[in-house]
């Protein structure tokens, strides 16, 4: 399913949230942005997508998605768009590691 977050995406989101309800919100916002190149309103996001994200994150139904107040939501949206231009050290390290393994195995 397209809305299944990768382990790197989960780690990335966990590093950026302070409240448990922000984690599924950030992951769903990230996956929606990847799919549609825009942020969706919560009315546009099917409940099945939110439930799927919660299950992938190991969260119960009592944890509802909430990006937080206006400034916090804006910060999360800015963080989601930032990896497009700045992959950050963790993603760069992962990419370099995978490329070196491919090179050493003769794939490249």
Key traits:
single chain; 108 residues; mainly alpha; 5 helices; globular
**Describe the biggest sheet?**
none
Based on CA atoms alone, the radius of gyration comes out at 15 Å
How would you describe the shape? globular
Would you report the number of β strands? 0
User: Could you tell me the strand content as a percent range?
Assistant: under 5%
N- and C-termini, Cα separation: 29 Å
Order of helices and strands: HHHHH
Helix and strand content put the structural class at mainly alpha
Low-confidence stretches: none
Helix content: 55-70%
Helix count?
Answer: 5
Tell me, rounded to a whole number, the average pLDDT: 78
Tell me what the structure shows:
This protein has 108 residues and is mostly helical. 64% of the residues lie in helices and 0% in strands. α2 packs across α3 and α2 crosses α4. It is globular.
Please sum up the structure shown.
This protein has 108 residues and is mainly α. It contains five helices and no strands.
Task: Record the SSE blueprint.
Layout: H1 7-16, H2 22-36, H3 47-57, H4 70-85, H5 88-104
Helix pairs in contact: 2-3, 2-4
